[in-house]
Design brief:
CRAL-TRIO_dom; alpha+beta; five-stranded mixed sheet; RIG-I binding; GOLD_dom
């Protein structure tokens, strides 16, 4: 067939001189060669330039004009045009080497890929090395900016002359099979070169339609990175829009963008993220209690995601789903966002590569600073930041309460600086005033809780839906490898115990646990010597363990130990009923070994047993009423971290005292 392959025709019209390039005074063809089958056409020229330089510098250098040697190679078979040039003048003092390349776009042959690069090496120049470098950079930047305008000018000129297309090159049936080249002298006329299958004008349309405004340097970075992926990456090559996100995330630093993009592509392949939307089925718990969803678009055509974080039961979701499932759900949200961006790009006829997120914080309180939940949030942010850069166009945070500065202190260090600049935060009802929500979202798509009509579900997750760490580990999900919570069984006469060694006094031991079954008594003890364990646990060297069908059970306090002599109680006993969630902390006064103990709670008046501990465990397996189950999480904040936390708290003097203590418990990662 035929196509408008006229870029090389337009390019040749620059010669022997071009009124659109004032510094380009003249040129002459030194040699022209063509392969016998006509597929390769080469032209060598000598170009005369009047460089825009200070007259004094020209007098010192002893020249009025600068000469360059240029070689153009048109490969009609491969549909490429390569242009290489270097300076002849002052080549012993300054080395300038420039490469330009036109090629057909791999996804659409009617689009052009253009790549340009140059190098400058100044050995010496009469003491004006710095001046020459600045002049060269100025001239090069100017030529890049002007290049596309000139091509378009001559393309339009060809169209006005009635030349709108030329046949695509095909080998002649009687053409020789050899690749020999013939040489012939020719005059430098405007029409010596046949077409190459690239259309620069359509390339500009493609960029404008799908990618947005790009400088020539940014275009070059995109093409080079994509070509590198095509040559070296084994697997699915992402679309230009996605490659561009990684380049923008690293300010078009090719090496840095390539590194994070390759890591992300490996991650996507390892976890089959490309198929997530087809394979992931959202659990019913998320459908019922996750207070977020996609909702129309903002005024700029960006997909709009609405999240009522203040109404979300983060603890319940983590306990019912586990971090892995919650991460899968967040990833599916991001994958859906990418799909919606592509869809909106087609609908609105302009590039849309990111989305807007509206977060309502009404109801946010200390409950949302539940430490394992915050830790899960930080890890999710880390994964999203690494694999979905430059996807958040704007974040509207509404009705931020007084507790928000604490959550922001925890989260902000994990968010890229460019992303943080896109945050707009409104306290109270400020979003209703000038510069508020109506500036970004049409009134008819504002959700009901902000005065619109969109309905959002949510609520507390019932504890009956909570699952143990073992149940969560058995799921075939492996985006993360570690589990926050441990589960343990507590039997009548056989408590579960955890030891923590403290080196520095004034460290803080923190704990968080749920009583899933039965009632327990929680104790905290201190001992100067390490507990003697009846049997070494291969997984946790400092613990002994009794593994039963009911779960893990570890006992550390030897029967021969005497309370008040071998060990002491440092926290008052706490009775915890079935279904309760307990969080707490203890500031250590001495180094040594601290033992957290969950003990079966015997109602007053009940007979106690004198059976040995192990025997009691075996006996209690036959009596379900003598078994309790807990899920727990512990962590130690070092004394240095604790002092830093205390300093941070001074910035919030109006907080209730209880809130301050909770803040001490939760803030370490921030």
């Amino acid at each position: 067939g035929t196509c408008r392959y006229m870029s090389s025709h337009a390019y040749e019209r620059r010669f022997p001189t071009c009124h659109l390039i004032p510094m380009f005074v003249d040129s002459e063809v030194l040699e022209e060669t063509e392969s016998e089958d006509g597929s390769i056409h080469q032209i060598q020229r000598r170009c005369k330039l009047d460089v825009d330089a200070p007259r004094l510098l020209k007098r010192i250098a002893g020249v009025d004009y600068v000469y360059f040697s240029q070689e153009n190679t048109l490969n009609k078979r491969e549909r490429t045009l390569h242009i290489e040039s270097h300076n002849e003048t002052f080549s012993n003092r300054v080395i300038i080497h420039e490469l330009c390349s036109y090629s057909a776009h791999p996804e659409n042959e009617d689009w052009t890929c253009f790549e340009q690069s140059a190098s400058l090496d100044i050995k010496s120049f009469f003491g004006f090395e710095s001046t020459v470098e600045k002049m060269a950079m100025k001239q090069y930047a100017s030529s890049i900016k002007k290049g596309k305008e000139i091509i378009e000018f001559y393309l339009n000129q060809l169209e006005e002359e009635g030349i709108s297309h030329v046949p695509r090159w095909t080998p002649s049936l009687d053409a020789p099979s050899s690749s020999s080249v013939t040489t012939k002298p020719v005059c430098a006329t405007p029409n010596v070169c046949v077409c190459v299958c690239v259309v620069d004008k359509l390339d500009a349309d493609y960029i404008k339609r799908y990618l947005g405004d790009l400088t020539p340097l940014q275009e070059s970075c995109l093409i080079r990175l994509r070509q590198w992926l095509q040559e070296s990456h084994k697997g699915k090559i992402p679309k230009d829009e996605h490659i561009l996100r990684f380049l923008r995330a690293r300010d078009f630093n090719m090496e840095k963008a390539r590194e994070i993009l390759c890591q992300s592509l490996t991650w996507r392949k390892q976890h089959q993220v490309d198929y997530l939307l087809e394979t992931w089925t959202s659990p019913q718990v998320l459908s019922d209690y996750y207070t977020g969803g996609w909702h129309h678009h903002d005024k700029e055509g960006r997909p709009l995601y609405i999240l009522r974080l203040g109404q979300m039961d983060t603890k319940g979701l983590v306990r019912a789903l586990g971090e892995e499932s919650l991460l899968r759900h967040v990833l599916s949200i991001n994958e859906e966002g990418l799909r919606r961006c592509e869809e909106n790009t087609k609908v609105f006829g302009r590039p849309i590569s990111c989305w807007t997120c509206l977060v309502d914080l009404e109801g946010l309180n200390m409950r949302h600073l539940w430490r394992p939940g915050v830790k899960a949030l930080l890890r999710i942010i880390e994964v999203v930041e690494a694999n979905y850069p430059e996807t958040l166009g704007r974040l509207l945070i509404l009705r931020a309460p007084r507790v928000f500065p604490v959550l922001w202190t925890l989260v902000s260090p994990f968010i890229d600086e460019n992303t943080r600049k896109k945050f707009l935060i409104y306290a109270g009802n400020d979003y209703q005033g000038p510069g508020g929500l109506l500036d970004y979202i049409d009134k008819e798509v504002i959700p009901d809780f902000l005065g619109g009509e969109c309905m959002v579900k949510g609520g507390l997750v019932p504890k009956s839906l909570y699952r143990t760490a073992e149940e969560l580990e058995n799921e075939d999900i492996s985006l993360w490898t570690e589990t926050i919570y441990q589960s343990a069984s507590v039997f009548k006469g056989a408590p579960h115990e955890v030891v923590i060694e403290i080196i520095d006094a004034s460290s803080v031991i923190t704990w968080d646990f749920d009583v899933c079954k039965g009632d327990v008594v929680f104790h905290l003890y201190h001992s100067k010597r390490a507990p003697q364990t009846p049997r070494k646990d291969p997984l946790v060297g400092q613990h002994s363990s009794i593994t039963t069908p009911g779960g893990n059970n570890v006992q550390l306090i030897d029967k021969s130990w005497t309370l008040g002599l071998d060990y002491s109680m440092v926290e008052s006993p706490l009775i915890c009923k079935e279904g309760e969630s307990v969080q707490g902390s203890h500031v250590t006064r001495w180094p040594g070994f601290y033992i957290l103990q969950w003990k079966f709670h015997t109602m007053p008046g009940s007979a106690s047993t004198n059976l040995p501990r192990v025997d009691d465990v075996l006996a209690s397996l036959q009596v379900s009423s003598h078994k309790c189950k807990v899920m727990y999480y512990t962590e130690v904040i070092g004394s240095e971290d604790f002092r830093l936390v205390a300093t941070c708290i001074s910035g919030f003097p109006n907080w209730p005292l209880a809130g301050v203590f909770l803040f001490v418990f939760y803030i370490k990662d921030g």
